[in-house]
């Protein structure tokens, strides 16, 4: 029970809510999580129960997902973006998202490089900046 309670407490504390709402959320989420914990395990049961409580309170799914992803970043992951770039000079290719460096995987594709960039729901309205490379022109058939 202790790991379940800690997980629920950690998730609920990420939400902007009054102390009373947080207390109620913890109690409600714990009762629901106990029912599903055998099938899901403590972490997934805590996530599901906290999400259910705040969605039932009128929070939108995007906000709930964002708050849960502060504890479990994989919840925010959308997928990967593949782009082809032409490296400029001998400098290392860099990718910045809203001014912060973002890791990516790079693969050789002849004189070009293919970049696999992880995208997150929280990247919405973010500025992506590519340094020391430029995007290639898409093939026109």
Largest sheet: 4 strands, antiparallel
In terms of DSSP E residues, the strand content is 25-35%
How many structural domains are formed by the residues? 2
State mean pLDDT (0 to 100 scale): 89
Spatial order of the strands forming the largest sheet = 4-5-1-7
How big is the Rg? 21 Å
Q: What count of helical segments does DSSP give?
A: 4
Sketch the topology as an H/E string, one letter per element. Answer: HHHHEEEEEEE
Low-confidence stretches: none
> Structural class of the secondary structure composition?
alpha+beta
Describe the structure.
With 141 residues, the chain is of the alpha+beta class. The chain has 2 domains: 2-71; 77-135. The chain is 40% helix and 28% strand. The chain has helices spanning 2-12, 19-40, 42-56, 61-69; strands at 77-87, 94-97, 100-101, 104-109, 112-120, 128-131, 133-135. The strands form 2 sheets. A 4-stranded antiparallel sheet has the order 4-5-1-7, with no helix packed on it. The N and C termini lie far apart (60 Å).
Keywords:
single chain; 141 residues; four-stranded antiparallel beta sheet; three-stranded antiparallel beta sheet; 7 strands
What is shown here, in short?
The protein is an alpha+beta fold. The protein folds into two domains: 2-71; 77-135.
Strands, helices and their partners?
Blueprint: H1 2-12, H2 19-40, H3 42-56, H4 61-69, E1 77-87, E2 94-97, E3 100-101, E4 104-109, E5 112-120, E6 128-131, E7 133-135
Antiparallel strand pairs: 1-5, 1-7, 2-3, 2-6, 4-5
Helix pairs in contact: 1-2, 1-3, 2-3, 3-4
């Amino acid at each position: 029970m202790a790991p379940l309670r800690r997980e629920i407490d950690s998730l609920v504390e990420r939400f902007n809510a009054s102390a009373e709402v947080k207390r109620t959320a913890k109690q409600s989420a714990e009762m629901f999580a106990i029912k599903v914990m055998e099938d899901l395990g403590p972490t997934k049961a805590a996530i599901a129960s906290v999400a259910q409580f705040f969605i039932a309170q009128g929070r939108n799914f995007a906000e709930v997902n964002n708050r849960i992803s502060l504890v479990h970043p994989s919840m925010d992951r959308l997928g990967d973006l593949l782009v082809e770039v032409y490296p400029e000079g001998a400098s290392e290719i860099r990718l910045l998202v809203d001014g912060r460096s973002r890791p990516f995987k790079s693969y050789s594709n002849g004189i070009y490089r293919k970049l696999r960039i992880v995208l997150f729901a929280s990247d919405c309205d973010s500025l992506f900046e590519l340094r020391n490379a430029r995007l290639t022109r898409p093939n026109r058939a």
